[in-house]
Amino acid sequence: MSSEQPTWQAALEARDDLEQYGDNAIGLFALALRFALDDIHSVAAESVTDGSDDKKCDLIFIDREEGVAVVAQCYFSSKDKRSAPANKASDLNTAVAWLLQRDVKELPERLRSAATELRSAIADGDVRRFEAWYVHNLPESTNVEDELSTVAATAKTVIDALHPAARVSISTSEIGRKTLETWYSETLSPILVNDEVKIGVESGFAIKTGGWQAYVTAVPARVLHRLYTKHKTRLFSANVRDYLGSRSSDANINNGIKRTAQSSPEDFWVFNDGVTVLTHHFEESVVKGKKQLLVRGVSIVNGAQTTGALGSLAKSPDPKALVPARFVQTSKPDLIYDIIQYNNSQNKVTASDFRSTDRIQKRLREEVAAIPNAKYEGGRRGGHKDVIERNKNLLPSYTVGQALAAFHQDPLTAYNLKSEIWVSDPMYARFFNDDTTGPHLVLCFALLRAVEDAKRALVGKSKTEASLSVQEAELLSYFRHRGSTYLFVSAIASCMETFAGRRTPILARTSFGPKTSPKQATQHWAEIVKLVSPFCQQLVEALSDGLKNNERAQKAITTFRSLVQATSGANADAYKRFAKFVALSK
Q1: How many CB atoms lie within 10 A of CB 303?
Q2: pLDDT score recorded for residue 239
């Protein structure tokens, strides 16, 4: 490998598991970097369009919980060129028009479900950011930038016309070498803003231990305003999530922060939780009789909302507005991660990190560690680092939660509420409790992977062979619905007693035993998935307008289960082979 090769490119090449996605691999890699996605394959199963008639949409990524939708066009050049073809950027105009404007019935089948969900998410107010990306491996250019400005105008016109009440920020991005290198570099250092910052403080005190030292004080709000104005979200490089933005609702905390800074600056200190700042170095001094704190390097690990809200004010805050602040200095990587983890209580996406300390997750980590070729981080959400240092044996925490929810007959939660599984105490207790075992996690995760593998194989076959059988075409049609993989997992799991040939009164105690690796478990499920896949047509009705209606989903699953039971005699030998692998713990 050449020493001049961009580091992001080396990281992409190391992800040989992405090769199966062709040119879309670079788009998936960009998604993983930008949103810290630790399981890109489950994302790919829902987001990658699968044919030439994709109306210029290579990826359609929708995350209602994060409030973001991304439509991407991907291009990978085997030759070194000065820039990427601008016409592919203009193709995003076509993508936006088809996805947001055209009658759904006129769309190619492969896009209908994605278009329906995207429009619904915007109309429901669940998408606050719409982003159109042109992702490639060449230098960025002004020609592409000009084309993308037209795409932004098109998207704004369409969304404003169809959803006038929706408040959606629209952006377009050319994601080429420079941007990919920037995003990649953000994975390597928790501190990207390396400026020296001088802060006048009234008072403060230092704390020092063997592993870290800190300075506690109050900083003028205008210092944070100035830093955010200059550096924007680079200030939050160590944070789990960037500034969420301010909406007009009185209940919205960011809007409240802005109001307080403007109307009651002298009370800001007592109304605000403050910020925690990771820094390379700090030192206290006295300059002209006044105390000053010199800080080198700034990354706000808690208080992104406070900083972003202050930074978005039209003018600098009143000097009376002070913000509680802790500046922390350490060189220990593990300690840096813990500081980031435990200082992010504001953001619900970190809920799984806090679950990682409970006794159930500790036990599950230990049980999975004893299973061959399996690793489970027990609630710790994967981050940017996982994009680069991929562990092929890892069972990503969020995907495990989704697999458990689907297996235990809640496909709507699995698809729509992956973070809520970790946030809500009642929901968390439904899927992670004393009955849940490490081998059971592997059983559920492997079934989801087996279903995703079946979809991927079918999509690949449709591209390389002239025609599919009627049964294959029907199955592919089913898989093109958003949420179809999770509904299929629920339907298969509902038939567990038929497959196992015995009663399974506590589903959480079923497994393939403690010696079966995730890879072997996926293979055990593969024959079952293939045998029952013709019955997927019974599930389509539950997906007609997205996976939203639990009553319809359960009705479809009941019909699916009846057909599996009715045909169990014909598949008896296969079910007996499968049953030999199934274990029931006491």
Answers
A1: 27
A2: 66
CA distances 356 to 238, 278, 292, Å, are: 19, 23, 39
Asked whether the whole model's pTM tops 0.90, one would answer no
pLDDT band (50, 70, 90) for residue 465: low
C-alpha 31: how far from its chain's center? 9
d(CA 530, CA 281): 59
Task: Tell which residue, 428, 426, 371, 373, has the closest CA to residue 397.
Answer: 428
CA distance 191 to 62: 29
- How far, in Å, are 17, 172, 480, 581 from residue 560 at the CA level? 33, 43, 19, 23
- CA-wise closest residue to 312 among 169, 524, 202, 464: 169
CA distances to 137, 267, 543 from 346, in Å = 36, 21, 34
Tell me the C-alpha distance between 231 and 494, whole Å: 52
Comparing C-alpha atoms, which of 325, 335, 334 is closest to residue 303? Answer: 325
Query: Tokens in use for 46?
Result: 């829902």
Q: 61 has which bridge partners?
A: 70
pLDDT band at 237 (very low <50, low <70, confident <90, very high): confident
pLDDT at 357: 66
**b or e along 335-369 (b: 16 or more beta carbons within 10 Å of the residue's beta carbon)?**
ebbebbbebbebbebbbbbbbbeeebbeebbebbe
Q: Looking at residue 365, what is its pLDDT?
A: 94
Question: Could you report the per-residue pLDDT of 35-54, keeping only the tens digit for each?
Answer: 878 889 999 999 998 766 77
H or E stretch including 73? strand 68-75
pLDDT in tens, 138-163: 999 999 999 999 999 999 999 999 88
Q: Tokens for 20, please give them.
A: 């199966």
- What is the DSSP annotation of 286-307? EETTEEEEEEEEEEEEE-HHHH
Phi, psi of 191 (to 5 degrees): -120, 115
How far is Cα 304 from Cα 294, in angstroms, rounded to an integer? 21
Q: What does the alpha-carbon distance between residue 579 and residue 573 come to, in Å, rounded to a whole number?
A: 10
Integer angstrom CA distances of residue 535 from 414, 449, 477, 529:
21, 19, 13, 10
Q: Which class for 156: exposed (0-12), middle (13-18), buried (19 or more C-beta within 10 A)?
A: middle
Share of residues in the chain with pLDDT > 90 (%): 69
Please count the residues of the chain: 586
Burial of 505 (0-12, 13-18, 19+ CB in 10 A): exposed
> pLDDT by residue (tens digit) across 310-322?
998 989 999 999 9
147, 90 Cβ separation under 8 angstroms: yes
The pLDDT assigned to 341 comes to 67
Phi, psi of 456 (to 5 degrees): -60, -40
Instruction: Please report, as a single letter, which amino acid is at residue 358.
Output: D
Distances from the Cα of 456 to the Cαs of 42, 468, 474, 487, in angstroms?
Answer: 11, 14, 15, 16
* Cα 123 from Cα 117, distance rounded (Å): 10
Residue with structure tokens 């030192």? 283
Given the structure tokens 């030759």, which residue do they identify?
79
363 Cβ contact partners less than 8 Å away, ≥ 6 residues apart: 438
Question: Residue 383: what pLDDT?
Answer: 47
